[in-house]
Amino acid sequence: MPDEIVTSLRTAQPDEIVWMGRVPARIDFLQTVAGIAFEPSSERRVTADVAEAYRCTSSAATTSS
Prior knowledge:
Elements: H1 3-11, E1 17-20, E2 27-30, H2 38-42, H3 50-63
Antiparallel strand pairs: 1-2
């Protein structure tokens, strides 16, 4: 993750959204979400290797041209 995104996340107010990328590959980072508790939600989390997904998308775009 770029250092500037990490810095933005560390200094953001709880109601601010920090994002990186552009649609359709934009990722929004929320520090709080009204009505959602972290612990129960964390148990159902999904992780993804964004770099791997980008590599797959990039190579698909270059091979289909």
